[in-house]
Amino acid sequence: MRQADRRKLMRRMVQLAFELKSELEAGRLDNFGAILDENWRLKAQLASGITDPQIDDWYQRAMRNGAKGGKLLGAGNGGFLMFFAPQERHADIKNSLAELEPVEFRFDRNGSQIVFYQPQ
């Protein structure tokens, strides 16, 4: 990818981050999933190691089952896929990704905290 194209993608990703911030601050979640999804697609274009066929498959299965968008979080071989979806579609998404361990979360206004998670 040409450097100019890479910069264009990154500028759009920065713009999306500000859009997402504005949406959250205004208490609007209507565009949250679409912004996550666009960012996912842009980020995947930046480098070949950002995603792989398995992660792409999980992402597409979640989207087909009601997710509005998603994001890959954390480090390789130990990260998370976060999806945004209407509550009534959560079970469908979990069922479509049965081989993965679901971790529920909620937004918190307390800031950074140390969290320990150990699957049973």
UniProtKB/TrEMBL annotation:
The keyword Kinase applies. One of its GO terms (molecular function) is ATP binding. The keyword Kinase applies. Keywords: Kinase, Transferase. One of its GO terms (biological process) is GDP-L-fucose salvage. Residues 21-97 form the GHMP kinase C-terminal domain. PANTHER family: L-FUCOSE KINASE. This is GHMP kinase. It comes from Pandoraea cepalis.
